[in-house]
Amino acid sequence: MKDENKADLTSKEDLAIAVMNLISIEEHLSFTVMKTGKKEYLHILGSVRKLRIGLMKSLLNNTEGELWCISKHLLAATMRQMETATKYIDADGEKAHEILKGAFGAYGLFWLLQKSGDDAKGVLKVLKDLGKKGAWKKKVSKTLKEILECCFEK
Predict the structure, then answer these.
(1) N or C, where is the chain less crowded by C-beta within 10 Å?
(2) Which of 11-20, 98-107, 121-130 shows the lowest mean pLDDT across its residues?
């Protein structure tokens, strides 16, 4: 952390992207096991899962209740939306942009849940604030832009 209000993404964002990719690898290995019928892929899947768990332990600040799983699924949803958006870039740029907004929203929720600290009150405040007037996407986007900074060396 560079200061209290900003998250240092030079280390954390790269780690979050790595976790996203490991989740995707887990998904692909699961389907590969079923498509090929080769149980050998289960061993690779188990190894990738262990690696992902280790990285998540160093990435997550707040795992209260089911926030571990919620965080994992927010990262997975972010990656899936980013991959989906790339498929629309040439055919429908507007749709690609809308899907990327959703990815940014999921990614922002992930970081907000981690920034809210280790206490339930912080998480509940974040969720309550996001729910007001149904403007959670705008609030997440604004807050994410405020708290995340990838280039502290400027």
Answers:
(1) C
(2) 121-130
Place of tokens 């912080």: 122
> Is the CB of residue 87 less than 8 Å from the CB of residue 108?
no
CB 89 within 8 A of CB 96: yes
For the entire predicted model, the pTM comes to 0.76
Phi/psi-derived region of residue 73, left when phi > 0, alpha when psi is between -120 and 50, beta in every other case: alpha
Nearest to 105 by CA among 132, 78, 129, 72: 78
Q: What are the sequence ranges of the domains in the chain?
A: 8-149
Rg, Å, the chain Cα set? 17
Distance, in Å, from the CA atom of 23 to the CA atom of 69, rounded to the nearest integer, reads 12
Cβ count near 125 (within 10 Å): 13
The DSSP line for 52-66 is HHHHHHHH-S--TTT
